[in-house]
């Protein structure tokens, strides 16, 4: 599935709306996989029919996403959809240019 999504995203002939659709789908898969790596515990719940169901619940109480402006903003929507109680902070990365490390040859 991921290889197929990459094929659409990297194809120069893919229409803009398809590119957006497939890239958002790929981002959501990345977020879902990342959340699956968090610790979970087994829980038992009652269904509306009164049947006990053994399921899993994430033991992490607070999830915080860090969005790097101009780079990670595309993942914000997927994170908020997959982890509704997550908090999001924004980080602006500013390039630092050190002129001492540059060398010019003529």
Please characterize this protein's 3D structure.
By secondary structure, the chain is α+β, with helices and mostly antiparallel strands. It contains three helices and four strands, in the order H-H-E-E-E-H-E. The strands form two sheets. A two-stranded antiparallel sheet has the order 1-2. Helix 1 runs antiparallel to helix 2.
Write a concise keyword list for the protein shown above:
23% strand; 4 strands; alpha+beta; two-stranded antiparallel sheet; 106 residues; 35% helix; flat; two-stranded parallel sheet
Q: Roughly what is the average pLDDT, rounded to an integer?
A: 85
**What helical percentage do the residues reach?**
25-40%
Task: Characterize the largest beta sheet: strand count, sense, and whether it forms a barrel.
Answer: 2 strands, antiparallel
The percent range for strand residues is 15-25%
**Which of globular, elongated, flat, extended, rod-shaped describes the shape?**
flat
Assembly context of the chains:
single chain
The ordered H/E elements are: HHEEEHE
The parts where pLDDT drops under 50 for at least 5 residues are none
The helix count comes to: 3
User: What order do the strands of the largest sheet run in, or round the barrel if closed?
Assistant: 1-2
Q: Find the count of extended strands (DSSP E, 2+ residues).
A: 4
What is Rg?
A: 21 Å
> Which structural class fits the helix and strand makeup?
alpha+beta
Our measurement of the CA-to-CA distance between the termini, rounded to an integer number of angstroms, reads 50 Å
């Amino acid at each position: 599935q991921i290889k197929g999504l990459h094929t659409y995203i990297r194809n120069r002939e893919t229409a803009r709306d398809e590119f957006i659709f497939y890239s958002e789908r790929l981002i959501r898969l990345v977020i879902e996989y990342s959340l699956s790596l968090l610790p979970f515990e087994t829980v038992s719940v009652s269904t509306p029919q009164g049947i006990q169901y053994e399921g899993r619940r994430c033991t992490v109480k607070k999830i915080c996403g860090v969005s790097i402006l101009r780079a990670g903003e595309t993942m914000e929507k997927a994170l908020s959809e997959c982890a509704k109680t997550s908090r999001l902070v924004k980080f602006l990365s500013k390039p630092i240019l050190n002129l001492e490390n540059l060398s010019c040859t003529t």
